[in-house]
């Protein structure tokens, strides 16, 4: 059987590059999607890596990238949706004191990259891993998805509220997608790293941050291995894992009150029945307009 193929967004630096190298050591093929090419110092082997310049905030860019990724090996097994940026706007800084002059439109790039970029990636990965050609090469449809959320998706982070909002949203997305993903043959999980030394953090912050509180890349790789079952365990689904210092901690969703808990399954089925029909109609309407132009 062919070696598995991973797609990694934000793959040219930081966590994405470390994961790429980690998977290569395990015999994987890796498609690197990033706005920047990986550094030559990474010395990535050309026979088992493919770099595709990708703007994850653009659906068209991601769609073209996934089409090329699928064409490369005719299979996709794992998507690490990792690309992310920090805040690009200060919500309380209105600049003007003139009531007749509203503040300029805020820069929402953080939401486009961190949240929409992940949503696009899930949709495209689900499409290409469900194609008949992909199923025949792998033996079954589906695959594994791991989203890079953040400890700021579990706890508040007042310094960068845009970032925290998108990462909280990713945790909710993963937990809400997991049941349907399992039905379709997928797993979807989230890793919530604490302070990992990468280029995302401003230099001043990294310099002053206590060394004892930094999370080593080895902890991140251990979290990936656990979620994918590469450590010998079974792969997980719907897990939200906090990677903090040397610990990998599984964070459960909050529980509802007693009455809700008693009827939870029935209520979930009701929501599913009502919305499934509506979502089918949405999908049919979208199909009538045609797919993305590559």
Question: Which secondary structure elements does this structure contain, and how are they paired or packed?
Answer:
Elements: E1 5-9, H1 14-25, E2 29-34, E3 49-53, H2 59-73, E4 78-81, H3 109-128, H4 132-138, E5 144-148, H5 161-184, E6 187-193, H6 203-208, H7 217-228, E7 240-244, E8 247-250, H8 258-262, H9 264-288
Helix pairs in contact: 1-7, 2-3, 3-5
Description:
This protein is of the alpha/beta class and 294 residues long. The protein folds into 2 domains: 5-254, 3-Layer(aba) Sandwich (Rossmann fold), CATH 3.40.50.720; 257-293. Helices cover 43% and strands 14% of the residues. It has 9 helices and 8 strands. The protein has helices at 14-25, 59-73, 109-128, 132-138, 161-184, 203-208, 217-228, 258-262, 264-288, and strands at 5-9, 29-34, 49-53, 78-81, 144-148, 187-193, 240-244, 247-250. Strands 3-2-1-4-5-6-7-8 form an 8-stranded mixed β-sheet, sandwiched between helices. β7 (240-244) and β8 form a beta hairpin. α1 (14-25) crosses α7 and α2 runs parallel beside α3. The longest helix is centred in the C-terminal third of the chain and has 25 residues, at 264-288. The chain is globular, with a radius of gyration of 20 Å. The model has no long low-confidence stretch (mean pLDDT 92). This is 15-hydroxyprostaglandin dehydrogenase. GO terms for molecular function: oxidoreductase activity. InterPro entries: NAD(P)-bd_dom_sf, Sc_DH/Rdtase_CS, SDR_fam. Belongs to the short-chain dehydrogenases/reductases (SDR) family. It comes from Aplosporella prunicola CBS 121167.
